[in-house]
Design goal:
With about 120 residues, this protein is mainly α. It is built from four helices and no strands.
C-alpha cells in the first residue's frame, strides 16, 4: 500500500484537476454543461482517482493497471482541451496551460508505469 499524497504523479494530477475546475470549466458555455463540460470533468478527476485506487492495491501489477487507466483519462482530457479550443471556448493561453500540464503528466505516468513493469523483470 502506498500513500498517494506522497507521489509526485498524484500531486501533478491533483493540480491539473484543480486547474480544470477553477479555470477551464467556467469558460465553457452553459449549453455544454451536460456534454463536453461533463466529459472533461469526469476524465479529469478520473486521473487522480485511478492513482488513489491503484495505491490501495497490493501488487505492482494491479497498481500499474490503474496507472494505465489514469493515462487513458489524461488522453481524454487532452482531446477535450483541443476540442474546446477549436470550438472557440478556450483562449490560446488556457489551451497551452492544458497542453503543458497534460504533457508533463503523461510523461510522469509513462515513466512510472515503465519503472513498475521493469521492477518485476
Amino acid at each position: 500500500m502506498r500513500d498517494y499524497k506522497k507521489l509526485d504523479v498524484w500531486n501533478k494530477a491533483h493540480g491539473l484537476t484543480l486547474m480544470i475546475y477553477k479555470e477551464i470549466l467556467p469558460s465553457l458555455p452553459d449549453y455544454e454543461k451536460y456534454d463536453l463540460a461533463s466529459q472533461l470533468k469526469r476524465a479529469t478527476y478520473s486521473i487522480p482517482l485511478n492513482i488513489v485506487e491503484g495505491c490501495g492495491k497490493y501488487t505492482d501489477k494491479d497498481f500499474t493497471h490503474f496507472l494505465d487507466n489514469a493515462l487513458g483519462s489524461v488522453h481524454e482530457v487532452e482531446y477535450c482541451g483541443l476540442l474546446s479550443a477549436e470550438l472557440g471556448y478556450l483562449n490560446e493561453e488556457q489551451f497551452k496551460k492544458i497542453e503543458v500540464q497534460v504533457s508533463e503528466l503523461k510523461a510522469m505516468l509513462i515513466s512510472f508505469i515503465k519503472f513498475l513493469r521493469k521492477e518485476k523483470h
